[in-house]
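Continuing from the previous page...

OK, I double-checked the sequence for Ribosome-binding factor A against my notes and this is the correct one:
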Amino acid sequence: MTKYRSGRINEELKKELSDIIRNSIKDPRMTSMISITDVNVTRDLRYAKVYVSIFGDEESKNNSLEILKSSRGFMRKELAHRVNLRYTPELIIEEDNAIEHGMYIDSLIEKIKDEK
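Thanks. Re-ran it with the corrected sequence; updated structure tokens here:
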């Protein structure tokens, strides 16, 4: 039962954080496309680990990640207004390279197919 509830909370936070990043953060330095791939909330709802995938060159990735990390307080405040939870979790933002790694593996497979 608790896994079902935590899954719903994870998905709701993921949806709301995506909307906050897309519509509420107005930093002109954020030029790359940002996608939230996963959100994991601890059992006590005190912390939420947010995995983001950032598309762009290396410099814009680093800038966007720093902007997201510096705007954690703003995102937490907006999240508290949008989601009714007993505790609004503290956000821990980490970069997720799974999509880029998957594209790299796919290119290797395509290269092997072309060699045959």
